[in-house]
Amino acid sequence: MAKQAEEIVTKEKTASQQYVDDIFSSLMGDKNKKILRQKHIYKKQLAEIRANIIEDIILDIKEKLQEFVKTPVYLSYLQDSISKNLKYIEKIELTEQDMVYKEEISHLITITKSEEDFIGGFKVIAENKILDFSFKTMLEQEVEKIGR
């Protein structure tokens, strides 16, 4: 009888322990789910903050580039960049706003006006290819690097 009572007590302890373990596991599962949900929310917020910062940087850079193309240094930049690549160039495209420099550059190469506004820089037309040295494309390439 003592052995039978001991078995009953052991079964009760095991059942009670299992019940406590089940409750504990359930509570921990709920806590883990809450933690994972919160972690997901934080990651999403962090991604949004990062995207906003990158967008602010892009806008600042565009503004600086737009200021730069209005300076005398920009004409020197264009002339130097074109001169360095003359052997590969048949003609170039400039933005409408850069066409004011046509006279200063036209002795170097044939110039056409681009239909696209690419902030500054130029596009080279050579051997039926277009090589893009525009500020817009350079900025896009840098943004792509940042995004990785």
Strand order of the largest sheet: 2-1-3-4
Query: Which percent range fits the helix content?
Result: 55-70%
Helix-strand sequence = HHEHEEEH
Number of individual domains: 2
- Helices, by number, come to 4
* Gap from first CA to last CA: 73 Å
Largest sheet: 4 strands, mixed
* β-strand amount: 5-15%
Q: Spans of 5+ residues with little confidence (pLDDT < 50)? A: none
Radius of gyration: 34 Å
- Which class best fits the helix and strand makeup? alpha+beta
* Total beta-strand segments: 4
Coarse morphology: rod-shaped
Mean pLDDT: 84
Reconstruct the topology from this structure:
Blueprint: H1 2-68, H2 72-84, E1 91-94, H3 102-105, E2 110-113, E3 121-126, E4 129-134, H4 135-147
Parallel strand pairs: 1-2
Antiparallel strand pairs: 1-3, 3-4
Explain how this protein is built.
Helix 1 (2-68) packs antiparallel against helix 4 (135-147). The protein starts with a helix and ends with a helix. Strands 2-1-3-4 form a 4-stranded mixed beta sheet. It folds into 2 domains: 1-68; 72-147, no CATH class. The relative contact order is 0.09. 66% of the residues lie in helices and 14% in strands. The protein has 148 residues and is an alpha+beta fold. The protein contains 4 helices and 4 strands; from the N terminus they run ααβαβββα. Helix 3 (102-105) links the parallel strand 1 and strand 2. The chain is rod-shaped and about 115 Å long. The protein has helices at 2-68, 72-84, 102-105, 135-147; strands at residues 91-94, 110-113, 121-126, 129-134.
